[in-house]
Amino acid sequence: MSTLQPIIHVLQHSSDEAVLEEFVEHESLIWVDWREDEEDVIQYFNNQLPEAHQIKCEMIEIDKPRGVDIVLSSADRKLTIPFADDKTDRDSAIRSMQEMIAPHYEIRWFMASLGSDTLAFLLLSTEQWAELERQFGKEKLEFHFQPITSDSVMFSLDMDDVFTLIKERQEAHASE
What we know:
It is built from seven helices and seven strands. Helix 3 (38-46) runs parallel beside helix 4 (90-101). It starts with a helix and ends with a helix. A four-stranded antiparallel sheet has the order 1-6-5-7. Strands 2-3-4 form a three-stranded antiparallel sheet, with helices on one face. The chain has 176 residues and is α+β, with helices and mostly antiparallel strands.
């Protein structure tokens, strides 16, 4: 079975709640709890990458309230995750991981996990995402699998924003 087949099935039958519920068990989804350590989040994504494309994660103690910098590196890039002075956060770690693996790979947020304290992500090659977009269109693909950008807010959404997004998605889904 193709790597994309379960994703294609979800996109073909996205109005069927049973299909979405079944997909949440799929092995390719990366589940991240809001309490995860950022270095663990990086490792979850690395586990889905070929060894040659994995990102090194180095923790460096610093004299700021957050106490640590996390430096991501590959053969040709190095990036210190841009955390606030007082804390680390999963959103910044995921956005930085996306920046490090681009343009060869993309992380996308599986939007059916919106509203939970554990969110699901899917990492595929850029070519695989492009194939899915050709088959289903950008709008439908991004409705279900939201790209991670430098502006993405996932774990840091306040509850009012989460409920607003859920309502907007339900209304859009009902009109499909």
